[in-house]
Amino acid sequence: MGNLLCSSIAVAVLWQTALGDCPISAPENGDLGDCPQTLSSGSSCVPSCEEGYELSGPARCAGHLSMPSCLPSGCNVSEAAVEHVLSLGNCPEWLESGESCELECESRFELSDNTSCFLGNLSEVSCLRVGPCPAGHQAVAGLCEPCPLATYKAVEGPGPCVPCPENSNTNSTGRSSLQQCTCPATFYEQRNVFDELLSCKPCPNNSAVVGVQRFGHQDCECFDGFVRVPEDNDLSLEYCRHAEPCNVSALLENLTGPEAYKLKMGSCSSYARLLPSGRQCSLLCDAGLGAQLGSDIFRAVDLTLACDDGDLVRRPTDGYLWCSEASWEVPPLVFLGITTAATILGGAAMEVRQHHFEGQYAKALRGNRGR
Ligand SMILES: *[C@@H]1O[C@H](CO)[C@@H](O)[C@H](O)[C@H]1NC(C)=O
Ligand SMILES: *[C@@H]1O[C@H](CO)[C@@H](O)[C@H](O)[C@H]1NC(C)=O
Ligand SMILES: *[C@@H]1O[C@H](CO)[C@@H](O)[C@H](O)[C@H]1NC(C)=O
Ligand SMILES: *[C@@H]1O[C@H](CO)[C@@H](O)[C@H](O)[C@H]1NC(C)=O
Ligand SMILES: *[C@@H]1O[C@H](CO)[C@@H](O)[C@H](O)[C@H]1NC(C)=O
Ligand SMILES: *[C@@H]1O[C@H](CO)[C@@H](O)[C@H](O)[C@H]1NC(C)=O
Ligand SMILES: *[C@@H]1O[C@H](CO)[C@@H](O)[C@H](O)[C@H]1NC(C)=O
Predict the structure, then answer these.
(1) What Pfam families does the record point to (predicted)?
(2) Range of weakest confidence among 27-41, 160-174, 182-196, 282-296
(3) Which of 151, 168, 171, 212 to mutate to test the pocket of ligand 4 (most atoms within 8 A of CB)?
(4) Ligand 2 centroid to residue 285 C-alpha, Å
């Protein structure tokens, strides 16, 4: 059986060879690719190679078979991306597989290894810094890297970057002094007798350091719209709470009366009945009308509402407030009247004094004469 198969293959091969065709077998480190088992005379085909090998040419059958081989791929050394390389050194641009050579590094850098090529792949090499890293830098895998954020290195040397004090940070990498470690806005500083930062302490809730003075918790100030607890400035700040708004709904609901004579919400309309602390707003009369309290046409009415931590510190006088024509027209008259009256009264008072003085004088004269 085996004999029969062997002899039939042998017969086939012989027969084909007789016709001038070439039987093909796969090249070493490759396979037949697009080639048939038997290449007919006068034709060619392209076998394929494994990764890392390159074909030396096509396969041809011309009376005899010219079979290419798969050769190890070389490497292009100028394509190697190595930092701090000065030149190719003794390397050719094209390095054959299995060969090695030495790149040249910049001054103060040293090559980690010879460059070698293996089946199209270049070995990894690097140029390592010789000697210690400068201030603000530390050695990482043979290279000097800038100190990361929140660290610094004050001197040139082999040491690592030092972390900034607790809670402090740097605004950039590569920092070279402790002075470049700073506290965030909501923290104050703790320093030693040499004025060196020891740590950053958080200001109490809802407060932050304002300005450059940040020596202690006394430099923490409440944010806008917050109130210190305890209230007394001499006691140390515990935290800051939201300032209470003022509930003005009852006050605004008191604005009754016929529409034309009713006080209007004015700028208070934007505060859905709760006036935030620190804000103020003004009620308003229609044009041509003035605010009036009851029937009192003489007194000016303050229409401003102002809130300070839950207290309405400024508000119209209690009572029936409305808008009237009279109070719009009358105040100038009243003012005129009052000034005139004041002048008259003032004049009268002087006259009375003068009169009194003259009286005393006349009396004295009379007394002298009587003696
Ligand atoms: C090597 O690579 C460089 C840059 O990519 C290219 O300019 C050069 O022609 C290549 N050399 C060879 C021999 O392929
Ligand atoms: C690089 O190869 C040279 C010989 O070509 C050898 O003297 C040297 O020690 C090798 N360098 C390294 C780092 O292996
Ligand atoms: C060459 O490098 C590539 C990518 O790193 C890898 O996939 C491949 O296996 C390497 N070839 C050899 C022959 O080592
Ligand atoms: C970073 O901090 C330094 C002091 O450490 C300061 O002089 C510099 O202005 C800061 N830069 C920025 C962008 O804030
Ligand atoms: C401060 O705020 C934190 C979280 O924001 C909270 O857990 C803590 O109870 C607050 N402290 C005071 C005193 O309000
Ligand atoms: C404001 O006060 C009124 C009563 O005067 C009350 O009905 C209302 O719920 C209060 N609003 C708020 C938000 O406290
Ligand atoms: C509403 O007006 C009456 C008088 O008309 C006054 O007694 C009361 O205090 C007013 N209420 C408010 C919240 O101003």
Answers:
(1) Ephrin_rec_like
(2) 282-296
(3) 171
(4) 97
| Residue 250 CB–ligand 7 contact under 6 Å | yes
Check whether 9 has a pLDDT greater than 50.
no
Find the helix or strand (DSSP H, E) in which 229 lies. Answer: strand 226-229
Return all residues near 143 (Cβ < 8 A) that are at least 6 apart.
83, 126, 128, 129
Name residues whose C-beta falls within 8 Å of residue 69's C-beta, 6 or more positions apart in sequence: 27, 28, 55, 56
User: Counting ligands in written order, which one lies closest to the CA of residue 51?
Assistant: 3
Least confident of 57-61, 115-119, 154-158, 297-301: 297-301
- For the chain, the residue count is 371
Please give the full DSSP string across 76-128, using - where no structure is assigned.
EGGG---TTEEE-TT--SEE-TT-EE--EEPTTEEESS-EEEETTEEPP--EE
Between 150 and 233, the higher pLDDT residue: 150
Residue whose CA lies nearest to ligand 1 atom number 7 = 78
Average pLDDT over residues 275-295: 87
Q: Is the pLDDT of residue 284 over 80?
A: yes
User: By the 8 A CB rule, do 302 and 339 touch?
Assistant: no
Contacts of 106 (CB under 8 A, 6+ apart): 84, 85, 86, 127
Distance CA 263, CA 291 (A): 7
User: What atom in ligand 6 is closest to the CA of residue 250?
Assistant: 5
Domains of the chain: 75-129 (2.10.70), 137-242 (no CATH), 246-328 (2.10.70)
**Per mean pLDDT, which range of 75-79, 324-328, 358-362 is the poorest?**
358-362
Q: Are 140 and 126 in contact (CB under 8 A)?
A: no
Integer Rg of the chain from CA: 51
Is the confidence at residue 6, as pLDDT, over 50? no
Residue 127 contacts residue 105 (beta carbons within 8 Å): yes
Task: State yes or no: pLDDT of 207 exceeds 70.
Answer: yes
Give the predicted TM-score (pTM) of the model: 0.44
Reported as half-sphere exposure (CB side, CA atoms, 13 A), residue 67 has a value of: 21
pLDDT at 354: 54
How far apart CA 271 and CA 255 sit, in angstroms, is 16
Looking at residue 260, what is its pLDDT?
Answer: 82
